[in-house]
Specification:
CATH architecture of chain A: 3-Layer(aba) Sandwich
Mean pLDDT of chain A: 91
CATH class of chain A: Alpha Beta
Helix content of chain B: over 70%
Largest interface: A-B, 63 and 44 residues
Largest sheet of chain A: 7 strands, mixed
Strand order of the largest sheet of chain A: 1-11-10-4-9-8-7
CATH topology of chain A: Rossmann fold
CATH architecture of chain B: Orthogonal Bundle
Order of helices and strands of chain A: EEEEHEEHEHHHEHEHEEHHEE
Structural class of chain B: mainly alpha
Number of strands of chain A: 13
Strand content of chain B: under 5%
Mean pLDDT of chain B: 83
CATH superfamily of chain B: ABC transporter involved in vitamin B12 uptake, BtuC
Number of domains of chain B: 1
Low-confidence stretches of chain A: 1-5, 10-15
Strand order of the largest sheet of chain B: 1-2
Order of helices and strands of chain B: HHHHHHEEHHHHHHHH
Oligomer: heterodimer
CATH superfamily of chain A: P-loop containing nucleotide triphosphate hydrolases
Radius of gyration of chain A: 19 Å
Number of helices of chain A: 9
Largest sheet of chain B: 2 strands, antiparallel
Low-confidence stretches of chain B: 1-29
Helix content of chain A: 25-40%
CATH topology of chain B: ABC transporter involved in vitamin B12 uptake, BtuC
Chain lengths: 272, 373
């Protein structure tokens, strides 16, 4: 397990941007099990940041702690320099939206109703006037307009995932946390989702995304953080972090890393 | 940069070509119309049942007389005057009974809707999970031991305390990892109903003949002998409960995303949950205090209304309140008139219909969720 020395890329050469979300020395212990241990994490505006690592590495736990769902046993998380605990839940909901792995809806709400729920933090504010437009936009972006009148329990897994993503987008938050948004999706919709969040990042939002497909992460992410056994193994640009040697050690699977002939992004292929 | 309002407004440069997007089906408007039609139909039916029920019984009174009597009481001197005997029968016997039925029906249906929302489970219902039995146990205890520390309110207060304790117990006993499994919920209900049942039996054994009779009436559920004083006690409770419930309706929608999902949208899940549990206890104890256990209203009505309107809680609550009131008033009419010269226990009637319905719903829920989850 003591695989690779922690590697942290130097801060960007460009003007230092204040961190949107910052975690230091984060530790989470559940029933005696250390799920996270001494994790430092920073996400900046305009950044698409991918969380990578094998199953059980602590990606979802980290996302939960960053979202304020999981109370850390050590360290703390701050958003815009303010500890998460100082935020009112409603204020927080206007700043950050979270897509969980589980997107069941317990009663037969229609897709439109579920996407409209994303607007609820803005109820009673001036932004409420944008509700209809943002809901329509989010549904168009997630390609679910044709499903608007269907009830969520009647949808397929991938359709449900897209409906949940549309709800998260409609929330209009500038910090997005997505836990495996591509898990249930086909090729086209996987690329759609990453393109979509890439655009949001480019336009100034902060996006933190858990994905399993390393090449997908390498193609779209500005920075990646690689986790193993609840610790950060490396964090930096995909090119810096995703080396064949490091991936091989962390995943226990030898890989080859190629450079994409056109884009130059790393392509990770298991050694077969 | 963190002011969300401006951030949220971004150009819609869709990377996704909307290939197969037919004009988005606008479901909002027809649904609204559907709700309006349903509310109107339920209200009309309520008025009709009220008039028929007030006019039926050993003493037959024409609807026009009933209307005249009500209008006169409100200060309008119009319509045919009811004869003094009719007037007395209406105001001392029939009206209080019907009003009590309406209040109890509304309270039970609303409490069922609320429980289903916080438990995220369509089978949660006060009588099924044992809250009604718990509240009845509290009320029976107050009667047998002659507690009068709060005057007329003592019985209702004892029902409330016991109902609240039971609701809290059920909630925490049947919940694991933010979800209520159907099996756990139903088994918890069985355990509580069994315990409360035997405790009630013990109280029946201990009590004198007067309180014994009262307790037996409760277990059957009856509106017999309704008085205005009782209404004066439970009407404020029901009203407060319903007002809070309506205030929470939109928040309850978010609970169907799961607890974490609701939290991410800014809902203080713990607070809302406790508030709803208290409101459920208020509504159920108000319903139980004088009429006893009337089962399944909170199960059947919200479910039927959801089938018509969908699950959004604001219209659902309005429809459930109207539907519950209608069902109780109708059931009471049947209870009074089905067998000549006899007053059937209304709780028996609702269970006769509600039991099979519950069974059907149980099977359907199991099939839908592919197991007992």
């Amino acid at each position: 397990m003591s695989a690779t020395a922690t590697f942290t890329a130097p801060a960007d050469a460009t003007a230092p941007v204040a961190a949107r979300l910052n975690a230091t020395g984060l530790g989470v212990t559940v029933d005696g099990a250390r799920l996270l241990d001494g994790v430092d994490f920073t996400a900046r505006p305009g950044e698409l940041h991918a969380l990578l690592g094998p199953n059980g590495a602590g990606k979802s736990t980290l996302l939960g702690a960053l979202a304020g769902d999981v109370r850390p046993s050590a360290g703390g998380v701050s958003l815009d320099g303010r500890p998460l605990g100082d935020w009112k839940l409603r204020e927080l909901a206007r700043e950050r939206a979270v897509l969980l792995q589980q997107h069941d809806v317990y009663f037969p709400f229609t897709v439109r109703q579920v996407v409209e729920m994303g607007r609820s933090p803005w109820q009673g504010t001036a932004a409420e006037d944008d509700d209809e437009r943002l809901v329509a936009e989010a549904m168009a972006l997630c390609d679910i307009e044709a499903l608007a009148g269907r009830t969520v329990p009647s949808l397929s897994g991938g359709e449900r995932a897209r409906a949940a993503l549309a709800r998260v987008l409609a929330q209009g938050a500038s910090l997005l946390m997505l836990d495996e948004p591509t898990a249930a999706l086909d090729l086209k919709h996987q690329e759609d989702v990453l393109r979509l969040v890439r655009e949001r990042a480019t336009s100034g939002d902060t996006v933190i995304v858990v994905v399993h497909d390393l090449s997908l992460a390498a193609a779209y992410a500005d920075r990646v953080t690689l986790l193993q056994h609840g610790r950060v193994v490396a964090t930096g640009t995909p090119r810096e972090v995703l080396t064949a040697e490091r991936i091989g050690e962390v995943y226990g699977q030898a890989v080859e890393v190629f450079e994409h002939p056109r884009t130059g992004a790393p392509l990770i292929v298991p050694l077969r | 940069m963190s002011s969300g309002a401006t951030v949220s407004a971004r150009p819609s440069t869709a990377p996704v070509e909307p290939v197969d997007t037919k004009p988005a089906a606008r479901r909002g408007a027809p649904n609204g119309r559907r709700a309006a039609i349903l509310f109107a139909a339920l209200s009309v039916a309520l008025v009709v049942v009220f008039l028929v029920s007030a006019g039926s019984g050993q003493l037959s009174i024409a609807p026009s007389e009933v209307i005249g009597s009500v209008l006169r009481a409100m200060g309008f001197d119009v319509g045919p005057a009811a004869s003094p005997t009719h007037d007395v029968a209406l105001w001392t016997i029939r009206f209080p009974r019907i009003v009590l039925a309406l209040l109890i029906g509304a309270a039970l249906a609303a409490s069922g809707t609320l429980m289903q929302a916080v438990f995220s489970n369509p089978l949660a219902e006060p009588s099924v999970v044992g809250v009604s039995a718990g509240a009845a146990l509290g009320a029976a205890t107050a009667i047998v031991f002659g507690w009068t520390f709060l005057g007329e309110w003592s019985v209702a207060a004892a029902a409330f305390v016991a109902g609240l304790a039971t609701t809290l117990f059920v909630y925490f006993a049947s919940r694991t990892r933010g979800k209520t499994e159907v099996v756990t919920l139903v088994l918890t209900g069985i355990a509580i109903n069994a315990f409360a049942g035997s405790a009630l039996a013990l109280l029946t054994f201990l009590g004198d003949s007067a309180s014994r009779e009262q307790i037996i009436f409760w277990q059957l559920g009856s509106l017999n002998g309704a008085r205005w004083e009782q209404i004066a006690i439970i009407a404020p409770l029901v009203l407060i409960g319903l007002i809070i419930a309506f205030g929470l309706a939109r928040t309850l929608d978010l609970f169907s995303l799961g607890e974490r999902g609701a939290r991410h949208l800014g809902v203080n899940v713990e607070f809302v949950r406790i508030l709803v549990i208290v409101v459920v206890a208020v509504l159920v104890s108000a319903a139980v205090a004088f009429a006893g256990i009337i089962a399944f209203v909170g199960l059947v009505i919200p479910h039927l209304m959801r089938m018509v309107l969908g699950p959004a809680h604001r219209p659902l609550l309005i429809a459930s309140v109207l539907g519950g009131a209608l069902l109780m008033a109708g059931a009471d009419l049947v209870a009074r008139t089905a067998v000549p010269m006899a007053d059937l226990p209304i709780g028996m009637l609702t269970s006769l219909v509600g039991g099979p319905f519950f069974f059907w719903l149980l099977r359907r829920t199991r099939r839908r969720s592919g197991g007992w989850a």
